[in-house]
Design goal:
Layout: E1 20-24, H1 29-40, E2 44-49, H2 52-66, E3 70-74, H3 80-93, E4 99-102, E5 109-110, H4 117-145, E6 148-153, E7 166-167, H5 168-186, E8 191-198, H6 204-211, H7 216-225, H8 235-246, E9 257-260
Parallel strand pairs: 1-2, 1-4, 2-3, 4-6, 6-8, 8-9
Antiparallel strand pairs: 5-7
Helix pairs in contact: 1-2, 1-8, 3-4, 4-5, 6-7
Length: 270
Amino acid sequence: MTTSGAATGGGLLNRLEGKTAIVTGAGQGIGAAIATRFAREGAAVMIADVNDAQGRASAETISRLTGAGIGFCLCDVADPVSVRAMVDATKKQLGPADVLVNNAGINVFRDPLDTTPEDWRRCMAIDLEGAWYCARTVLPDMLANKDGAIINIISNHAFTVIRDSFPYPVAKHALLGLTRSLALQYAARGISVNAISPGYTDTQIAQDDFDRHPDPARVRAETEAKQPPGRLCRPEEVAAVAALLASNEVRFMIGENIVVDGGVSIRMYE
């Protein structure tokens, strides 16, 4: 474990002091918010991202804001060799990973019969296999220490389906299965594995999608109106849940999927 000397504030508990965390896809959005929260809670954090410029910028910003020990590693989670290099770099720079957040992912939304073999392979490689590659690479050190937390960022596509979104929900359903399988396998050996399923979250990716429409403001307002709270989820709200799961405070929570979607998934027809 590595002590980071991170600054705290805003009611934070410093609950991750002395921990080393890897957050994939941390160049922006939810991943960046989680990495920032972890750093503010006292962790040393490895920012892993497939976008070099974006990842480095995120690492520099988080380091400046928190004073934490922050590293950056270019990583393609779909490539086991790249994942191995990322985990090794983390161990060398910050210490063995105590926490892994599998946040990296892509949206692949198609009509099933319009889905090409490449669409299928790309979705599964990043959204499912990447999480497995990262988990299996950090697990030996976690098991040796008899302590560790793995958090898979899924979505409510893990238990609900929207037409014309194939094969994304297939990968997300499978990622929930991976979460539960690993959780039971290693619960008695000090490892907690859980998932978070965010709903429609206010990220740059979401804004880019709005901007593709002729009237982005109208589409955004319509989307917000569909959410029971009347707004989109904030990345920081997902990060707060991740910080709790990364800590040693809820290690009796095993294989759970915490839904942070504003109540969308519990709503009946209106």
